[in-house]
What does this fold into?
Amino acid sequence: MTASSKGRVKLFGFWLICADMAAQYSVPDPTIPAKMYMTYQGLASYLSSGGDNYWVIDTDYENYAITYACRTLKEDGTCNDGYAIIFSRNPRGFSPAITRLVRQKQEEICMAGQFQPVLQSGM
It folds into this structure.
């Protein structure tokens, strides 16, 4: 699977740029299809590239997918630098029913209130 994203990113805590990124996902172990490895590349020299361990935490396959990625691990194997993204298939966001379901899942993974909406262009 491949993906691309373009949007405003803050670098070094102060520099706002329009980032253009490309990613490719692979499934290292077919017996664990929810766990992937994401290789990403910034399409400009000052954007980062690398790879992250990536999991689909929950999805209904029609409206949303809650994902989590870990950039680096601590010595004990826990995540040192991670992030979560909730994807919507609808550029206008979720219905009230799906919003309630997604918020419940956020509570379950101890990340309630940790997400910011990102407007989609629909492209």
About this structure: The chain is about 10% helix and 50% strand. The first strand starts at residue 2 and ends at 11. The chain has a mean pLDDT of 81.
